Every structure is written in structure tokens, then in C-alpha cells.
Amino acid sequence: MNRTLSLLAVLGGFLLISMPACTSLEKGQCKQDIDCSGMPTKRGDLWVCYKQTPEVEIGKCMKAKDARLAHEKYEKKLHGKCEDKDGDGVKAGDACDPPIDCNDSDAAVKPGATEICDMKDNNCNGLINEGLQRCVGTVLGGKRDPVVQFMITLPAGVLAAANGTVWVADQHQIYHIDSKGKATRFAGSNKPGHEDKKGKFARFDEPRGLAMDQAGNLYVAECKNNCIRKISPDGQVRQYAGLCSSKADDTGLDELGDTSSARFWCPIDVVFDKDGSLLVADMLNSKIKRITKDGKVELVAGAGGKEDENGYTVFGNSNGPAKKAEFNEPAGLAVGSDGTIYIADTKNNCIRQLKKGKVTTFAGACEGGKDKGSYADGPVSKARFKLPQSVDIDKKGTVYVADTGNHCIRMIKGGVVSTVAGKGTQLGYFDGSLDEALFNEPWTVSVANDGSLYVVDYGNYRIRRVMR
Questions:
Q1: Are 244 and 252 in contact (CB under 8 A)?
Q2: Can you list the pairs that 39-48 forms with residues at least 24 positions away whose Cβ atoms lie under 8 Å?
Q3: What average pLDDT does range 413-428 have in this prediction?
């Protein structure tokens, strides 16, 4: 028995009428809603046959919410304006076809314009100051007054991986940035937690340091969950080392052994050493640990804290044999081509190095306390830092430092410390030339293959790029 189904749907003012299906249509085409009944559904999605105007014979199968958006866009174009207010030859408005001027009040900004080192997206590609030498630009905008469409909540870590990809650790999520600056969520949700699932169904709690192996697996130092996580290329998240928990009873622990029994206390950075083991900056234990390829967690350097006469745990700054040396909340790690490990010893306000089993001061004066940090360029013994949180090293052996308390990016080369970008001690936000750019507590620095530096500008809620 043949039946005729009629469905009248009113979506945003346009009509969608369902009648018996037409078998001659190509996949995705339709004449009525029933032609879309075979489309995949998820969480109750309603598929409809969208036509911009009733007289159109062939429509397109779309989700109802997408059909609404398409119709709203059509109505804006139909009744909107298209004009050139700034006289630069490119029009703007809802009724315009691409290319569209992204700022019709500034004649220096339009599609195809030459990008210059300023605070503007001169060529309307969604990026600021991209690809310019001796210039600082914003890659991803921030929570307050975003300069690009993408918004991050609380950026903490960034990795410019050896394979050319760029990754960002946000408050509870991991993002990937493509070559055009577009960011997509790779793993994690909007809520904190420690669930090992795939992609957006996994949960993190303030991930920070990132490292990638040759197979494309991403390793995440997760401070609040006190563990190291591993994300496979398909987005599957797994516990890699430590117990992933933020409970009080699981916090403040310090244990070596296999990866399941080992314990960390706010691990904050990870990097692979010359032999392929994963180094961990176990920050609140003030130790550097190693996760070997056969699944063992070992102590590399750091004696940890000791109790003073009042029963408080205090941390020192002594150099010497690796396991007897003292750190004060080390937050950043980098490994040179010869295997030397560089350490941002944050609360000792200096950069340390571990070479041939001994820890020495690489740059700055190691003195504990925020009030002991200061700012000075010059020979490594006379240079000064303030709460440096991150280090990285380029192919030529130049070491870069995110000098958090001084709001700038520093460079250590040939025994001399200099400021690469930012005005030492002056915080703010400004994209521009290296000596004019301003940062607000840069947390992380990562060197890309082309020598540019990706920086987490924590206080400005942005990811910045320093072109040199």
C-alpha cells in the first residue's frame, strides 16, 4: 500500500515540504525532506531539504540548524549593503561577495594588502604580523579583547614540534594550529577531570608542558592531575606515568619505580633526551625525573626539599653531583644536541645546566625568592632573570628563555644574555617590532623549525610568534 507523507517545516521563515522521494537525485541532493531521511543522524539531528527560494527545484540535504544559518546568511546578503567606505577599492558588507574588506574604516587594510609590522591584520587573513622578520605577532587571540576570532581560556604550554606542527595546552584542552593559523581542538573538554577517552571526550586539568615523539604521539605534563598523559595521533588519551588524580590524598607525593606506581607533584614540563627517554620537570618536588623507554621512572637530578628548624620545607640552589644538587620549583626543560639538559630553575631566578652528571649555573645568579630576581643583560655571570619558567634551544645551540617575571624573551648565546623581544620589566600587550613588543608574563617558549619562537603570553591570554 503506497502512502504519501507530507511534512511542513517552518525554519526561520522559509518552507521545507516533504513528499515521496525521487530516486534520480544524486547523493546529498533533494526535492523534499523525505529525500534526506537516509542521512546519518546523531543526537536527534533533524535533516531537511534546504532551498534558498521556493522556485528552486533541487535542494541540498542539511541539518536543520545549518539550514537556519544558511537562510539567515542569504537574507542578510539579499537585504544588506555592500560599499567601500574607506575608498581602498574593496567593499564590505553582508551583501558583498568575496573578497571582503575586513576593516572598511582603514584604507591600509584589505585583502591582498602587504602585511607590515603593526597591530593590524593588513591582508585580512585572520593573522597579525605573520611571517615578518624582526616582528612579534599574535597567532591566537585571547580572553580579553581578542584580536582574532579564536579564543583560548587559559593558555599554558606551546610546542612547535619537529614535524612542523604546533600544539597548544589550554586550561583543559589541547589544540592544534595548522599552517594558516587555524586552531582546532585535538583533545579535552571544557570541564576539568582526568578521563582517558578519545578527542573531546577526554578530560584534563591544567595541562602544561608538551613533547612529541617520532611516531607523532603527544605527551602532556598535567600539573593538577599530577601525572603524564599520552595522546596518540588519532586523539586517544591514555595515562602514561603517575596516578592521574587531583585529590588531596594523591597530591604531594614523590615516588620512583614503574610508570604505574611512580608519583609526581605538579609535573609541569616534558622533553625527550638524547636517548629517547622522557624527562619530566617534577616542579613541586623540585626534581628532574626520567621515564625510560622500558617504563621506569628514575631520578635524574635534584635532592628535593628539606625541613628547617620550624618544620617548613625549604629548597636550595646548590650545584654539584646531579642527585645532590638543589632546585627551587624548576619549570622548564630543554636538551641540546650533545645531551646537555638546560633547566629553568624558576624560584631560584636562574638557568641551570646538567652535563656529565653535574649541575652548574648556566646563566644568572641562583638566589631563591621572587624578591631576589631582577633584570640585566650581559655576560652570563652578571645577567639576571626573574622567575624564568621555560627554556628551549635551537639547532645552533642558542638557548631561549621565557623570563616570566621580566615580561620578555631572552637569549643566551656565546656566553652572553640579551633580550630578544619585549622591554625588560615592562608588561603590556603590543604587536610590533622586537624592541617595541610587549608581553605580560610569558610562560612558555618553543623554537620552530624556521627559527621563529612561539610564546605563551599568559597574562594576555594569547599565543604570540616572534620572527627573527
A1: no
A2: 48/9, 48/11, 48/16
A3: 96
